[in-house]
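U., I forgot to send this yesterday:
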Amino acid sequence: MHEKNQPLKMIIKVSSQNKFPSKNVFVPLFQAELPSLQKDVLFYLPPDIQKIALDFARKNFRGEEGEIKYIWLSSKKIERITFLGLGERNKWNTAKSQMAARRAAGFAKNEKMEDFSFYLREEFGENYKESSKIFALNFLLADFEFSRYKKPSAKAKPVKNVFLCSTEENLKDLKQGSEEGKIIGEETNGCRALANSPGGDITPVGLAQEARLVALKNKISVKILDEKDMKKIGMGGVLGVSKGSSEKPRFIIMEYRGVNPPAGGPPLALVGKGVTFDTGGLNLKPEQGIYEMHMDMSGGAAVIHGLAAIARLKLPLNVVGLVPAVENSTSGSSYRPGDILKSLSGKTIEVLNTDAEGRIILADALTYSLRWKPGFILDIATLTGAAMVALGNHCSALFTNRDKLQKKLFEIGKDSGDKVWPLPLWEEYGEEIKGTFADIANVGKVRWGGAIHGAKFLESFTENTPWAHLDIAPKMTTNDAEALTKGASGAGVRYIVELAKRYEEIINV
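Result:
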C-alpha cells in the first residue's frame, strides 16, 4: 500500500545558462520588460535565436500575469521557447512566484513535455537559493496527480526532468535551494496521496502502518500504542470516540533526533488529528458533508510527512510527532450525546455533539505530548466547518496562547506558502464551553464562534505550554485559484518545516 501511495518523483537539476539540456526553454518575463529584453533576459541564447525570440516577443507578448506564448524553432539545440508572463514588477511577491512555477508545470504537463530548461530569475525569491527552492517545491505540487485508482489522464503527462538555468556563480545556490524545495514538495505530495486514499484502505491500523514505513525510511523512531496500551494509561478520549467502529484505534508516536540539536533544548511537539473516516457518529453528517471525510486525517498526514521532511533536511532540533488515529462511526456501541469521557489529563469531557470528535482525541494527544516537556506544541487538525465560514478556503485559522508569538507564526505561514490568519482566544469564549455535568463540554453552548470554541477546548489541555493550533479545515482540499489538481492540499507540511527551521527563534521570544 505504501509504495502505491508514493507520488512519482521528478528530477530537478541545475545547469549553466548557456548549456540547455532540453530543447524546450521557458523564459519568464515581467510587463514592460521588452525594451531591455535582449540585454537582461535573452543574452544567454545563441545570437540567431535571440533575434527570433526578440521579434516574436515584441509582436506577440505583453508579459501579463499568467500569459503564456510560445514559438517553434528549426534549431537543433532549441526547438521551442515559451514565454511566461509574470505581471507588473512592482506587484511581484512570493505568492505570485509560487503561482508562476505552478503555471509552468501545468503548461508543460498539458503540452506533454518530458523535460524543459527554465531560466530562473533571482526575483522568484530573496536570493537564488530561495528562488530555486520556491520553484522546485511549487513545480512538484502542480505536477502531482493522484492516480492510484485510475488510469493517468492521456491529456497530460508528468514532467520527468526540469533544468534550472543561471550563471555559473549561482549554480551552487540553485542546487541547494532546489534540493530543499524538492524534499518539501515530495513530502507535501506524500501527505496529499495519503489523505486522498479512501477510508476503507487507510483505517487507523493502516495509518499507523503508513507512519511506521515513513519513519523507517527516514530513520525516525516510531512506536504504536494499541487499544490495550491506551486503556492502561487512561486515554478515555481516544477510546470513547473509537467505540462505535469495528476498526480499532491506534496512537502513533514518532521521534526525530536532530543533527547537533541545541544543547539541552526542549523538543518541538507536533500533534495531528487522525480521524480516518468521520461519519459524525450518532450526530450523523448530512449527505453534503460526509463525502470527503476520509480526509479528516489530513492533520495526522501532515505531521507524518512534515516530520519526514525535517528528517530528510537534517534540521538541528528534536521533534516528537503524535497522531491519535480513530474512525468515528455509528453502531450500537457508539459514544452518545450526553456521555461523559475521562481524558488522559483526568479532566472529564461532556459530549454534546459526537461530530466534534477531533478535539476529544487531540485532548489526549496534547496531554501525552507534555511528557517530553516541549518548548512549543503545534497541533494541526481539520477541526471545524466554522473556520471555513470565517475565512473561506484560502488560508487556515491560527490560534495561540502566546500573543507575542502571533506575528511570527503568521509570518511562517506567509513565507512557507501555508497561509494562516489569527483568530482570538479570549476568556469569554472559554465560559461558553464549560460543562454542566463535566469539567468541559466538547461544543459551545451558543451557535456562534465554533472555531474558537474548538481552539479554547484544546488550549485547556496544554497546561499553559507555549502552543498553537492550526484549523486546516478551510485548506483540506485545493481550490481552483491554486492551479493544483483536485483533492487533498497537503496543508501543514510546509508550515511544519518552516516552523522547525525557526524553532530556536520561536522558543526564545
